[in-house]
């Protein structure tokens, strides 16, 4: 087992990882940017290395500086967390080349799964269903139309080299197909210099369901059941839960087995997530594989009782998985919501400033993974994720009631967060009844506005005007909307 | 004391009379309510309103106030007649202390990235800067080099890019 782990990340996930290190008696090294010097994760680590600069490129994305920090502190392993360098094969390779243990899948696996085309090929080889579709490969428009009809409308036309929705079109009927094809080709050429197109069956109102898998160096692969992450906004997950309300036992068996097959085919080691979409008829299709610990891993920890980071360390140290598939059970129901510093009423614009009040509600079955504390400054330099609330209950209704209660009791003020929006999601009848698809937000909470104030709330405002004004926090210097120049990157000039 | 407040789409005016821990709130319709203060510590108030115990947490930005009232989050601000200042709206940036502009680094129409420095200022021998809290386009500038600025008054407005990029 490793003795000292460098955590190449920040915020809530760095803190999460170092908690497991401490529990296991493993020393931790945090690297931090200048602005994160006083952040909880930096203060709580056993050792810290300051990385010069503030931008992500200068710090958490800087391979050279991080490897150097690992060497200087005598760390023998690196945990990348999620985001930043976690799915960067070159970084994984650099860690291994430096003689350190990489806590994650091999650089080859990261590379393979990083390519959507290669991952899709691998899935097809492993007989895991992929979204039905075809590559246009020099076919005439009429040939393509015939194929599209076989696929069944609506279809999705997208650029082979694509991303970001460019060159992407949903075609509802055969009549509009040829015209859309030509337009997509022009757009793809302009955006990517490559006009090759893929035509896929367009799945309406799908659910996003993913399976947590784990592999070790001894050829064992298990799944840790599914998570449903359908409630998203522009591909940004907002709420995740396990089990999924859309799967019965047979469907669960099928989708988890498909994930295990794929992981076996990839000779997968360490933690990974196989993402699927599930259509209205209950068919599922492979989407992609994430070769890292996920943001939403605590949901799986909730229903399995396992510590996924501890498992990652064991597997990375070459130990076999300490259980077999048959030993694992999915018990109760867990839900996670992501708390972001963003204004849901202003198109979810990221917010910055000082967290003047931070009171996280607690109780049985409640877990908070947060990277901030009262007084923390939310800077514009990184992701606006403040942390995650995870609730656990004996079943889905119990977990939802707990989620609603804890969201109501939690107070975060000074920087606008999405907590009011999360309250609206958690209370929505469609969510409560399990009607969760990736169109949930668009369909039910589009252009959401906070409910109008009640009489009692107006009186509370009046009382705050009368009595709240001279409170020390209330007088704290903060800036219009959100920015605090006292805490800007500039230092004292005359010291 | 008279207050006029804006919360969401609604505007209400009140007359407040404070006597120790009792507050009389008279609305525009002339109806008076008694709000009793039970406790107060730091940023929180505990009130008794029409027999109900109400817990309030508050934080104050330069213009908007953020309240949590028995589980509900509210934002409100003093009503502004004809906006004598450029009211800091969500896209606008200001300083929290009086300062002097030493340099304006952008002009209207410029594209800025998150974290870009937009305006440099000086206050009490200290260099300050206003940075873009998100990527977008500079929509308005309300100051130039050498100008003194008051806290909470908007100096610059940045319109955020449409979301859609993965975070």
What's the CATH class of the largest domain in chain A, please?
A: Alpha Beta
Strand content of chain B: over 45%
Global geometry of chain A: globular
By secondary-structure content and strand pairing, the structural class of chain B works out as mainly beta
Principal-axis shape of chain B equals elongated
In total, how many domains does the architecture of chain B comprise? 2
CATH topology description of the largest domain in chain A: D-amino Acid Aminotransferase, Chain A, domain 1
Contiguous uncertain segments of 5+ residues of chain A: 471-495
Strand order of the largest sheet of chain B: 1-2-3-4-5-6-7-8
- Based on CA atoms alone, the radius of gyration of chain B comes out at 20 Å
Give me the number of helical elements of chain B.
0
Order of helices and strands of chain B: EEEEEEEEEEEEEEEE
Sheet with most strands: strand arrangement of chain A:
14-13-10-11-12-15-22-20
CATH classification, class level of the largest domain in chain B: Alpha Beta
**Which quaternary structure do these chains form?**
heterodimer
And the CATH topology of the largest domain in chain B? Answer: Glycoprotein, Type 4 Pilin
Largest sheet of chain B: 8 strands, antiparallel, barrel
Number of domains of chain A: 3
What does the radius of gyration of chain A come to? 24 Å
Secondary-structure map with pairings?
The complex is a heterodimer of chains A (495) and B (167).
Chain A: E1 4-7, H1 11-23, E2 27-32, H2 40-44, E3 47-50, H3 63-73, E4 77-79, H4 89-97, E5 101-102, H5 107-114, H6 116-125, E6 133-135, H7 141-151, E7 155-159, E8 169-171, H8 177-192, E9 197-201, E10 207-215, E11 221-233, E12 236-242, H9 249-265, E13 270-278, E14 284-290, H10 297-304, H11 308-316, E15 333-340, E16 342-343, E17 349-350, E18 353-354, E19 357-359, E20 366-370, E21 377-378, E22 385-393, H12 396-409, E23 411-413, H13 419-427, H14 429-432, H15 440-444, H16 455-468, H17 472-475
Parallel strand pairs in A: 1-2, 1-4, 2-3, 4-5
Antiparallel strand pairs in A: 6-9, 7-8, 7-9, 10-11, 10-13, 11-12, 12-15, 13-14, 15-22, 16-17, 18-21, 19-23, 20-22
Chain B: E1 2-7, E2 10-19, E3 22-27, E4 32-41, E5 44-49, E6 52-60, E7 65-69, E8 72-78, E9 92-93, E10 99-104, E11 111-112, E12 117-123, E13 126-131, E14 136-141, E15 148-149, E16 156-160
Antiparallel strand pairs in B: 1-2, 1-8, 2-3, 3-4, 4-5, 5-6, 6-7, 7-8, 9-16, 10-12, 10-15, 11-14, 12-13, 14-16
